[in-house]
Design goal:
Rossmann fold, repeat, ABC_transporter-like_CS, 2 domains, ABCA, transport, alpha/beta, 9 helices
C-alpha cells in the first residue's frame, strides 16, 4: 500500500525509488502508470490527470514492468516495431527507431532472434528498450536491472543516461549503488511511505552511516560461506550484512 505520498518528478532527470522488497515501490509505479487506481489523491502527467486523461497520457508514457512481458514467438525487431507502431509512429519512423534502439542496446546481432531464445539479460534489455519506443517522454522502470549480469546492467545504465535529456525517468531499485550512480534524485520508500527525497549528495551528507562493501558470489546459493564471513569480520569486526539478493551480498562498514 502507498500512504500519503507527495512527490514531484522533473524533466531531464532520473528519480530513483530506493527501498527493500515490499516497501511499496511497485505499487507506487502501478499507480503512476494507471495500472492501479488510487483510493485517494491522483497523479498529474504533463498537467493531465491519470483518472480523466489516461488515453492521452499513454501516448507519452513508457513502462518496463518488474517481470518481462514478451511474446515468445516474436523476434527482437518485431517487438520494437510493434510497440513503436502502437504508439502511433509511421512505418519509416518505426524502422529508423528500430535501428537506433538495437545499436544503443547492443541487440543488433539478436534482431531476428525470438524472445523465448534470448538470455535473461537480453530479455531485460529488450523490455527496457520497449519502454523508450515511440518517443516516450515519461518512462517508468520497475527494477530494470533485476536479474541481469554486470555487463548487461552497465549497458542498461548507459542507455538510461543517454536517453535522460528531454525525458522524465522514474526507476525503482534496491541497489544503493544503482540509485547513487543513476539518480539525480533519490526517494527512499518504506512501508508505503516516502521517508526522504533529495540528491545522492544531500542524502549522504544528511544520513550517511559509513561505507558499503558489495560481494558477488560465483555460484548462486542461499548459504553464505563461513570462511567469507570469518575473513570479513577478522578485518572489520563491526561489519554488518544488510542485503543478500541473488548472487550479491552487501555489507555496511562503519
Amino acid at each position: 500500500a502507498v500512504d500519503g505520498m507527495n512527490i514531484t518528478f522533473y524533466e531531464g532527470q532520473i528519480t530513483a525509488f530506493l527501498g527493500h522488497n515490499g516497501a511499496g515501490k511497485t505499487t507506487t509505479m502501478s499507480i503512476l502508470t494507471g495500472l492501479f487506481p488510487p483510493t485517494s489523491g491522483t497523479v498529474l502527467v504533463g498537467g493531465l490527470d491519470i483518472q480523466t486523461h489516461m488515453d492521452s497520457i499513454r501516448h507519452r508514457l513508457g513502462m518496463c514492468p518488474q517481470h518481462n512481458i514478451l511474446f515468445n514467438h516474436l523476434t527482437v525487431a518485431e517487438h520494437i516495431l510493434f510497440y513503436s507502431r502502437l504508439k502511433g509512429r509511421s512505418r519509416d519512423e518505426a524502422e529508423q527507431e528500430l535501428e537506433t534502439m538495437l545499436e544503443d542496446m547492443g541487440l543488433t546481432q539478436k534482431r531476428n532472434e525470438e524472445a523465448q531464445n534470448l538470455s535473461g539479460g537480453m530479455q531485460r534489455k529488450l523490455s527496457v528498450a520497449i519502454a523508450f519506443v515511440g518517443e516516450a517522454k515519461v518512462v517508468v522502470l520497475d527494477e530494470p536491472t533485476s536479474g541481469v549480469d554486470p555487463y548487461s546492467r552497465r549497458s542498461i545504465w548507459d542507455l538510461l543516461l543517454k536517453y535522460r535529456p528531454g525525458r522524465t525517468i522514474i526507476l525503482s531499485t534496491h541497489h544503493m549503488d544503482e540509485a547513487d550512480i543513476l539518480g539525480d534524485r533519490v526517494a527512499i520508500i518504506s512501508q508505503g511511505k516516502l521517508f526522504c527525497s533529495g540528491s545522492p549528495v544531500f542524502l549522504k551528507n544528511s544520513f550517511g552511516s559509513g561505507f558499503y562493501l558489495t560481494l558477488v558470489r560465483k555460484v548462486r546459493t542461499t548459504k553464505m560461506g563461513r570462511a567469507t564471513v570469518k575473513v570479513i569480520h577478522h578485518h572489520i569486526p563491526e561489519a554488518k550484512l544488510i542485503e543478500s539478493i541473488g548472487q550479491e551480498l552487501i555489507y555496511l562498514l562503519p
